[in-house]
Amino acid sequence: MILTPDQQQQVIAAIRQAERETSGEIRVHIEASCPDGDPIKRAIDVFGHLGMHQTKEQNGVLFYLAHDDRKFAILGDSGIDAKVPADFWASTKELMRRYFAVNDYTTGLSQGIERAGQHLKAFFPRASDDINELPDDISFG
């Protein structure tokens, strides 16, 4: 397993912290290898499988990681994609890549999640009647 149980809890805590002030939904999916070699295509498949396209404001963000293949992708739904700056996902990936390069997946994921949460908060602030539409746990392939 790429993350120990404690590290998994750290990532889940980062998701919960990021979602505390936004209606946005963040998920993490981890698997050993990317089935077709294209992390974006795989992230799109996983996004649909996890039902992330069904959020009310289309503001879900998926962090996809295929650790053995050393590939990852960040996929935002149309609601968040329409609002973040054009280079947002690329700069977030670059931040994460620095940690992944030294096999620090916990910090890399946590930093990316925190950054996404800040932008989600700016564009999709949490309403008083907000409900958590998607689970905060990590899914594994």
UniProtKB/TrEMBL annotation:
Pfam families, sorted: TPM_phosphatase
InterPro entries in the record: TPM_dom
Domain of life the protein comes from: Bacteria
Domain TPM: 2-118
Name recorded for this polypeptide: TPM domain-containing protein
Organism expressing this protein natively: Fibrella forsythiae
